[in-house]
Write a structure and sequence with these properties.
With 510 residues, the protein is an alpha/beta fold. It contains 17 helices and eleven strands. The strands form two sheets. The chain has a nine-stranded mixed sheet with strand order 1-2-3-5-4-6-7-10-11, sandwiched between helices. A two-stranded antiparallel ribbon has the order 8-9. Strand 10, helix 15 and strand 11 form a beta-alpha-beta unit. The chain is globular and about 65 Å long.
Length: 510
């Protein structure tokens, strides 16, 4: 039986390694020049939209670009480009997708196929992640996976040293770190637009991609037909501010009090969170509970309504003595640094070059006295204070809001902890042809997840003719926890821990 399993695993691994990369390969890049574009035809698998073909006609391209366009002697790098062909014989302007991050891929299999009714869909790989140069880092996640406070002052020094090791390694590999910024990304997209032969394009940006989209409009307004940005992150707002986070939890606390069944569990959910954080046990069963990791997961889980409900439920249980859900949150953080698809070098390069302020005390500012959880993830910027990522800043003109005449629609969730709606309201002042929709009680990742028909209608009408046709209705938060609570997940981890321990004992006795 064991031999059969081994053979099956070998066959499976060989099949994975033999899977053909659909993007054309460039063997000798020095024989090419900037802008060269090689294509191959293929099909993308449609796994989620039953009303559309199972395979979508796709052009896979590889484009040659300069690594650093400000240097005449800069080397060339390559980036993948993916075009899903419209189902229309006479498609309108294509839609270029710009996903969030930074540090994540901009390529997906076959997203938003309902757009293909009238448009091509185009994805240009992000430099530093998807192309010939990878800013993957093992040093940074290793330092983040600390037994103490991951972003406490002591570990910040470890993170600084680790990030410098990654930085120096990239330099020794011949990578020009200063070239991995938002402005170069925009120029990559503009080169891809030209290579594909489009006159004007539409942009649809999400989170970090909204910043790139907005700056694209400042840099190449003549290339853009319309821009839709969702979870808006304008210049000057990459850092999450503690006051915004506290205001969100205060609002959620007031919403909680509207429901008798919630009041029966806790008369003040914010006070419950505060009390539990102040009295956490060091261990629950055999699981170590790290207060700072719990705080960071409180922030991360608030990206969605479901995450908010699950964390509130876990804190109610903890106040009653069941810390299994809190233990799960602490353990869950340890999975984040090594999350598949996260390129920490790219994250640092794009963030520090655009938003780092050398005059700010991030450790102090992000943990003010009286704040519920502060803004723990923003402490990462303190690495730059100690010289941990010495990258050249993007031009100052792109670090502040400026007037853009590009027709722009901004979609925000009213309880977006990552990009609060007031950010887009502030940007609206600089958009003469801009419009804003704030969806009540939607988090950072909720805007397209609820009322999908209304969402599709809004996006399609805007890209089709510029109209804002919204059928959204308010959907108040339901604080009823889902069946899969964090307490159940925490107890599952505990049981798995016991199983591993039993296995080790049995092995020792053989």
């Amino acid at each position: 039986m064991k031999k059969i399993i081994v053979i099956l695993l070998i066959i499976y691994s060989v099949s994975l390694s033999a899977k053909k990369n659909p993007y054309p390969k460039i063997n000798n890049i020095n024989e090419h020049k900037a802008g060269d574009f090689i294509t191959a035809q293929g099909k993308s698998k449609n796994k989620y939209y039953k009303e559309y073909p199972k395979k979508i006609e796709t052009t896979y391209g590889t484009i040659v670009v300069k690594e650093n366009r400000s240097k005449p002697d800069s080397r060339f790098i390559t980036l993948p480009v993916k075009k899903l062909h419209s189902l229309s014989e006479n498609p309108k302007e294509p839609i270029f997708l710009l996903y969030g991050g930074p540090g994540s891929s901009n390529l997906r299999e076959a997203p938003f196929l309902w757009l293909l009714e009238e448009h091509d869909i185009v994805m240009v790989g992000y430099r530093g992640v998807d192309g010939s140069v990878s800013l993957q880092s093992h040093e940074i996640p290793e330092a983040l996976a600390s037994e103490g406070s991951p972003l406490g002052q002591e570990n910040i020094k470890r993170l600084t040293e680790a990030s410098l090791r990654a930085y120096d390694r990239y330099k020794s590999e011949g990578i020009d770190i200063d070239a991995y910024n938002m402005i170069e990304v925009i120029d990559d997209f503009e080169d891809a637009r030209k290579a594909l032969g489009y006159n004007k394009i539409n942009l649809w940006g999400f989170s970090y991609g909204t910043r790139v989209s907005y700056l694209f409009g400042l840099r190449y307004p003549e290339s853009i037909n319309r821009t839709l940005i969702e979870g808006v992150n304008p210049p000057g707002h990459f850092v999450w501010e503690p006051a915004d986070i506290d205001n969100l939890y205060a609002y959620l606390g007031e919403q909680w009090k509207k429901y008798p069944e919630c009041l029966a569990k806790s008369p003040d959910i914010v006070k419950t969170i505060e009390n539990v954080l102040a009295s956490l046990p060091r261990k629950y069963k055999k699981i170590t509970i790290n207060p700072d990791k719990v705080k960071m997961m409180l922030f991360m889980m608030a990206y969605t309504r479901t995450g908010i409900v699950q964390t509130f439920d876990a804190f109610v249980a903890a106040e009653q003595g069941d810390y299994s859900g809190i233990a799960f949150l602490s353990m869950a953080f340890d999975q984040l640094p090594n999350m598949p698809g996260m390129y920490w070098g790219d994250n640092f390069a794009k963030a520090f070059s655009a938003d780092f302020d050398p005059n700010r005390d991030y450790i102090k500012d992000m943990d003010p006295e009286g704040s519920l959880i502060g803004s723990p993830m923003s402490k990462l910027f303190s690495i730059g204070t100690f010289g941990g990522w010495p990258i050249k800043s993007i031009p100052e003109e792109y670090k502040k809001m400026q007037t853009s005449n590009v027709p722009t629609l901004m979609i925000s969730g009213s309880i977006d902890i990552s990009t609060p709606p007031q950010y887009s309201t502030e940007l609206l002042q600089y958009l003469p042809n801009g419009q804003q929709i704030v969806l009540i009680d939607r988090g950072h990742q909720d805007t397209g997840a609820l009322q999908k028909d209304a969402y599709h209608k809004l996006v399609l009408s805007f890209f089709s003719n510029g109209s804002v046709d919204s059928d959204f209705t308010d959907v108040p938060i339901d604080f009823t926890p889902p069946k899969q609570t964090f307490q159940k997940m925490g107890n599952l981890f505990y049981k798995l821990d016991r199983m591993r321990l039993t296995g080790l004992v049995m092995k020792m006795m053989q």
